[in-house]
Recover the amino acids of this structure.
């Protein structure tokens, strides 16, 4: 069950990330991924993830290195995928693009996306060997809740608890 949940999260992020990237990216010939920002974001997310699962300093260092290496390896592929998604969006809006051309571009992007996901899966499997059973259980529980729709972000849970206390005081 744990392995399927981890793979499920990877798949959900893999499907949603390109869509978000198209929604927020402007057509450009310059790189759409800022290398410095991308690296900082990856480091921040890795550390936040490690804090959430109570990772040791050694585990945090290993996870951060895995994430950094993955982001570095996939950056050119993600850049190409973003550019392709913008092209696909433009094709869909154009009257002179045929359905076959659009399908061919979509299949090309699907293949690129699968390559990115293969690298991410390998990284997730490496990270899995760094973590202990309790940490993997925490991840499994959170992902299961997220994927089943029974998920409330921590800040919302905190706000709900605070308002419940205020109501109880009345």
């Amino acid at each position: 069950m744990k392995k399927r949940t981890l793979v499920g999260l990877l798949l959900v992020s893999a499907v949603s990330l390109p869509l978000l990237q198209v929604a927020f990216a402007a057509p450009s010939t310059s790189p759409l991924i800022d290398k410095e920002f991308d690296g900082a974001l990856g480091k921040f997310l890795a550390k936040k993830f490690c804090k959430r699962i109570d990772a040791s300093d050694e585990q945090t260092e290993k996870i951060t290195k895995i994430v950094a290496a993955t982001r570095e390896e996939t950056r050119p592929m993600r850049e190409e995928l973003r550019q392709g998604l913008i092209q696909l969006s433009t094709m869909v809006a154009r009257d002179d693009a045929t359905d076959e051309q659009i399908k061919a571009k979509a299949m090309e992007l699907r293949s690129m996306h699968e390559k990115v996901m293969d690298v991410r899966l390998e990284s997730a499997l490496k990270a899995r060997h760094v973590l202990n059973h309790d940490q993997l259980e925490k991840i499994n529980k959170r992902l299961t809740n997220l994927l089943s729709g029974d998920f409330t972000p921590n800040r919302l849970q905190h706000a709900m608890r605070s308002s419940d206390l205020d109501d109880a005081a009345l």
